[in-house]
Write a structure and sequence with these properties.
heterodimer; A: mainly alpha; two-stranded antiparallel sheet; disordered C terminus; B: about 160 residues; mainly alpha; Four Helix Bundle (Hemerythrin (Met), subunit A)
Chain lengths: ~500, ~160
């Protein structure tokens, strides 16, 4: 293996950190009166550079750096690109959101960039200490971002609830890591895998695994650790909800994949039933909860719990295809969910004028384009053919069937049918109901950046649904990181040797 | 000798933690937290982690607790009002904690043979050992911590300052 300069392995993170610091120190130099958009543009440029750097990392030989703390492989690149993409679109759609409403717009961009640094580190970390630090960076930034509408009590409530429950969950994760260290003598994923295979104290390992599953289950809002989700998503600013319902979840799922598939691969008989239960509970509770909601953001919060359940279905397959399906579904879910929340943020604005289903009655007449985009995202969330959601679900359920999880697939399909009801109810509200002209809500015209962001998301939904080959190829390549020899031209090794 | 010291300070630690929860005035809670931190430092020392023990005293019992007490005094916090608490906390929380404690205790007790015991008092962790871990093996986590602290500072500024 050729030696790669270690810093190149964390190049996207370095670029994002530098941009974040630059945004942070430029902010006080600007006059208080002028617009903060240049800072947003700076953040966008930094994000583009980070995405380019991640894509370039694909050409590096897979390997570790910094004494086995991070590893770049197709898997990490896939999630780096995904998180970078989510960050890019979030920046685009929120470029005007806070303008004129908040004094801390510069800090907003910096926090978004830093949180992405934490998430990216989580996806490339193979050292649980590193995972923990990344998790903390991404969590603390999202706690703060959730409370960004400072004049609104509900936003402060969201922030404090998220903070308290999130810290509680992190403590569980950390305790799991500590027990894991106690049982195997290491916090490195590969050493843990070796320790698990030859362990004399399986009970302790089961406990460690359980604790880590609780912590990560909270972060991905899988039932029964989902109770915070509706309250937090209701209170947090809509563009932030789009971000924090996708990017930190993608990172947490990546960690979950590394821990279960690599670290505890030989204990799959323990975690597959646990994840099976979590998947069924998430799908059922999420969809039943969403049925009863009249608040649009709460409804989508429950829907995001359900989607975490579909993703866990892919986990239970424990095969290369299962992993590829999980990766693909994370991307598909990110495209449609960020889109749905972006449209809500545009239609309801900073002060959240449209929160209930009936506020959206007949909006198709007033906002034909925004409604059309919303329709695409909702149809994709249902899983209508030719959208990302369809292909994602199709792939997940096929993979689960190949692994013989028939009951799980049956429950999942029933749930998808149930879910169609509340998405269609929202859609019919927009298209079928008469517009209430008495509600005098005037929106600012959509800015070019916002339109570009939505266009990227709509394109992503269709590309992932119709021509998913490129993404699928990358997802399969990242699966090959775990299961070598499963058809990929990307050079990967099951256990890379340290560089020095 | 070790066992006696352990029992004394573990008991002190638990008593401090319970007192922290039951006291109604924040300053009393903060002072019991100092007891917890210091007795934890002794426990670390008993495990042979003398650097960690000293860091615990200097950083936690010293710096962080002074900060806590300052904040409490600056905000002029008075005694908490007593509420009845939530019923779920009593019905699910207490049995949950007891169950968790029972599981942990049974697992640790059943594994005492497998886990083995540490040899104490034979080696000292030198500065060069520490720096090898901190600045070589764990260099990246060490550096990344600065991003974490930066985020925390940024958040404190954003959340604490007024909008204008």
């Amino acid at each position: 293996m050729t030696a790669v300069f270690p810093a190149l392995r964390i190049l996207p993170e370095i670029l994002l950190t530098l941009t974040g610091v630059l945004v942070m120190v430029t902010e006080p130099l600007l006059s208080a009166k002028i617009s903060r958009k240049p800072l947003g543009v700076l953040a966008l440029l930094g994000t583009l550079a980070a995405i380019a750097a991640s894509a370039w990392q694909l050409h590096l030989p897979a390997g570790t750096a910094f004494f086995n703390t991070v590893q770049t492989d197709a898997f990490s690149v896939f999630f780096h690109l995904l998180i970078g993409g989510i960050l890019l679109v979030t920046l685009l759609v929120s470029l005007n959101y806070f303008e004129g409403h908040s004094t801390y717009i510069g800090e907003f961009y910096a926090l978004l960039l830093f949180s992405a640094v934490g998430m990216m580190l989580m996806t490339s970390a193979i050292e649980l200490l590193m995972v923990f630090l990344g998790l903390e960076i991404s969590s603390i930034s999202t706690y703060i971002l959730a409370g960004y509408r400072k004049r609104s009590a509900i936003s402060a409530e969201a922030s404090i609830k998220y903070f308290l429950l999130g810290s509680f969950a992190t403590a569980f994760f950390l305790y799991g890591v500590a027990l894991c260290f106690g049982a195997t003598g290491s916090t490195n994923i590969y050493s843990i895998a070796a320790g698990v295979a030859s362990s004399s104290s399986p009970l302790l390992l089961v406990l460690a695994l359980g604790m880590m599953l609780i912590g990560l289950g909270f972060k991905v809002s899988a039932a029964p650790f989902h109770v915070w989700t509706p309250d937090v998503y209701e209170g947090a600013p809509a563009p932030i909800v789009g971000f924090m319902s996708t990017a930190p979840k993608a990172a947490a799922f990546a960690v979950l994949l590394r821990i279960t598939y690599t670290g505890f691969g030989t204990m799959s008989h323990i975690w597959i039933p646990l994840l099976w239960i979590m998947a069924v509970a998430s799908m059922t509770i999420g969809n039943l909860g969403a049925l009863t909601q009249r608040n649009v953001k709460r409804m989508l919060a429950y829907s995001s719990i359900a989607h975490a359940g579909y993703l866990l279905v892919a986990f239970t397959a424990f095969s290369a295809d299962g992993l590829a399906a999980a990766c693909f579904y994370t991307a598909a879910y990110a495209a449609m969910n960020v889109g749905a929340f972006a449209i809500i943020s545009y239609l309801s604005g900073y002060d959240e004028r449209r929160v209930h289903l009936q506020d959206y009655a007949g909006l198709a007449k007033r906002h034909p384009l925004a409604s059309a985009a919303m329709a695409i995202f909702l149809l994709s969330l249902i899983g209508i053919p030719f959208t990302a959601g369809f292909f994602g679900k199709f792939y997940v359920f096929t993979v689960a069937m190949h692994s013989g999880r028939w009951i799980l697939v049956a429950i999942g399909l029933l749930n998808s049918g149930l879910a169609a009801f509340y998405y269609l109810r929202f859609l019919s509200q927009i298209y079928m109901q008469p517009y209430d002209a008495t509600q005098d809500i005037s929106e600012a015209p959509a800015q070019p950046a916002f339109v570009l962001g939505i266009a990227i998301l709509v394109a992503a939904v269709f590309v992932l649904g119709i021509i998913p080959n490129r993404v699928l190829h990358l997802a399969r390549a990242s699966a090959a990181t775990y299961f070598p020899g499963t058809g990929s031209n990307v050079a990967v090794h099951a256990r890379p040797t340290p560089l020095r | 000798m070790h066992l006696v010291l352990f029992l004394i300070f573990a008991g002190l630690c638990l008593a401090g933690a319970l007192n922290l929860l039951f006291q109604r005035h924040p300053i009393n809670s903060a002072l019991s937290l100092i007891v917890v931190m210091t007795s934890l430092a002794v426990l670390y020392l008993l495990l042979g982690a003398e650097f960690l023990a000293l860091a615990q005293i200097i950083v936690y019992s010293g710096a962080i607790m002074v900060l806590f007490v300052f904040v409490i005094m600056l905000l002029n916090v008075s005694a908490e009002e007593r509420t009845h608490g939530s019923r779920i906390a009593y019905l699910a929380g207490i049995p949950g904690v007891l169950a968790l404690f029972a599981i942990l205790a049974s697992i640790f007790l059943s594994l005492t043979k497998n886990l083995g015991s540490a040899q104490l008092g034979e080696f000292l962790v030198t500065t060069s050992d520490l720096s090898r871990v901190l600045f070589r093996d764990l260099l990246l986590p060490f550096e990344v911590t600065s991003v974490l602290i930066l985020v925390a500072i940024l958040g404190a500024v954003v959340l604490a300052r007024k909008e204008h």
